[in-house]
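dumping the sequnces here before i forget
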Amino acid sequence: MKNKFQLKNGALLVIVAALAVFPFVSDSRTWTILLTQIFIFAILAMSYDILLGYTGIVSFGHAMFFGMGAYTTAIMLDRFEPTLSIFFLSIAVGMVIAAFVSFVVGLLTLRLKSHFFAMLTLAVSGLFLVLAEKWRTLTHGNDGFTFKAPEFFKDRMMFYLLVLVCLVLVYIFLRRFVDSPLGKVLVAVRENEQRTKSLGYHTLHYKVIASVVAGIVASLAGSLYAISLRFVNTSVLAMDITLDALLMTIIGGVGTLIGPIIGAGVIELAQHYLSGLAKDFPIFERWIIFFGIIYILAVIFFPKGIVGSIQSVFSKKKDKSFDPVLKRAKRKEVVK
Amino acid sequence: MELIINLTINGLATGMLIFLLAAGLTLIFGLMDVLNFAHGGLFAWGAFSGVWFYGLTNSFTLAIIGAIGTGIVLGFITEKLIIKPVYGNHIQQILITLGFMIVLSEMLKVVFGPNQIAAKTPPLLSGSWEIGDVIIIKYRLFIIVVGFLIFGIFQFILKRTKIGLIVRAGVMNKEMVQALGINIKQVFLYVFMVGAGLAALGGVLMAPYSGVIYAEMGMEFAILAFIVVVIGGMGSFPGSLLAAILVGLAGSFMAYYVPALSLAVNMMLMAIVLIFRPQGLFTAKG
Amino acid sequence: MMSTLLKLEQVHTHIGQYHILQGVSFEAKTGQVSVLLGRNGAGKTTTLKTIMGLTPASSGSVQLEETLITKHATHQIAHRGIGYVPEDQGIFGALTVEENMKVAMRKEDDMARERQEYVLELFPDLKKFWKKEGGYLSGGQKQMLSMARAFVNESKLLLIDEPSKGLAPVVIEKVMEAIVEMKKQTSIILVEQNFMMASRIGDTYTLIDDGATVHSGKMSDLVSNEELKRKYLGIG
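..and the predicted 3d for all of it:
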């Protein structure tokens, strides 16, 4: 067991190292930008996985935290000065705002049944979108505004490396989070909230914690996203962002953390190539249809996603349970 | 005074459109515990297909029939392909109906093009009446009349016919209805198709009201309909009418007096209801 | 010997992750009242629900006369002539007594109306409250309505879950009389905690413990078997 663990971490390390030297050996600007984009969305998708995969919460409003990060960074760099310290400060401010909002919204809505919660998150994030559109003095509405990024990021490579570092740190942080006793409770909530409650856990608190953590990480992704475009408009708050995160998580594999990263890669690459094809085949302008269909098929036939399916092929123990995490929990129960 | 009348008419007309969307949602939810996030897509398809039929036939009646037909067919497909495979699993349902929503609205763009389409008001219903200082736009009144008519018809069906009684009984206790020998899945399919037809009707009536139609309108109205369903009480048909009127009126008056709050007011209504009376103002279970 | 109407063989039922029935086997004969006995949580209600197809068996078989109904949908099982009176009576609270009956009646022909008349004679209270909403009925009236609903269609077998629960002794007496009357036309499987009642109207018994049948036989034998009663029912 331990060997396997080391093998997995070793493989991850090699991949990260390869990605870190990538911009030094390749001078493809397109690839650097594309990979940066993938990393940013991988961070967002991982944060979504905390909700959907680990806690079993379906939120349709995750874009609002992404948008908060993006707007905070954009506005602060625009109003003050485009320096690195302001940039880092803006990330922190964005996180605080996201933490506060996710805390309040979570406290009010997470006690509701999944339907209502999904609906409410949809409505609340819709509210933030409208707010951003109306508060033009601050956001310039749908037109958005451009701003200067810190000098340091003029070099795309530096930004690429920063985002990669963020990705790795977020992964380690979230991995520790889900492996901690607290993370185990979240999984228990996902599997059977009633039962977890009857064991004496105040499940609402745990769900709020999960939503705050997810909100903070999503805000970081938003801050990075704003820098990558040097521009921000209301699209960062749009439903599409939530859908992207949802798609990446489902297709990559819920409840795995690695899955959403792979999902982000798959979706961003496919988006890149499919929209490239649109010049010759206009149907590909609507590439999202294909994702919609794949997504629906995945939900019905392939609910474990890429990583989950691979895991279950490799895991020798036959278990009727669909879920790798549930399996682990069950084995523990048996041991007890 | 005329201002208040006009705002009331506006609010009622919007409320009726939301009601048509919410009526199906609330019954589908009450009967099968399915929250259909694709419902707004059916609304948008109703609008686009209706406008298309209108252009083709130049008859608004045929446009309405065509739109309802489209809605019913799409409802059939949705239930069979999308809802049935994940029946009983809430999270999968939420995820899959949202996915289908995307497919529906993107398909709209494939079929009808990605741009907004202008919608004409039929000549018979365009223009307005002037009664003293009050100007009443005919088409708005038409929507209100249709809304109440639909409500009346469905109230009659639900209260007086056997199938209606079965639907209401199903909302209260699914297991028992099955144990009495009723194939509830069949009933559910019909209710779903009728709900989709109502959503499509809402869509086609919406088109001349707003003047332009676009794929995203489905989601916009669906959110309002969700709010209405929560406020009215899941599964309650009269509740959805009253809540829809409430939301419509609140929107119309707020848009005039406190425009900044016009969207927030519905959200606040919903939040208050959810916090203090999570089962909604009316309840159908029991 | 009377013919076998319903036969369960090694029925196992799972609800979610819980393994509730772990080998239930028994037979119910035509024209008899078969009583399922056992402690709370032994699996009696689940046994009825499994027969009805509401919690389908994961293995084993349920056979009604010549037909295997294990995999049938609930409504098909009802159509084969099994009526169900659940523990909570399953009354549609916002519907009137009349409407409750209407939902239950599968055919509305002369025969069905005749049956309805007969049922209403059995339960005159229901006639009195014909236009009253089910939710406002008393516990006993709800029980009667639930039984009337199950009985209004031609049925071979009624499954009745704890009809005496929460009722006053006078009302229990009425319900018992009705069951005895119904028995003339249909067979009955009864779940009953009230041993007095069970022993008076039951012909045979089946003891269920921890999700499995442990004993079956004639009711008269159980009444005199103090050891069995003490072990599985905690009485005597």
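The longest helix of chain C spans residues 169-182.
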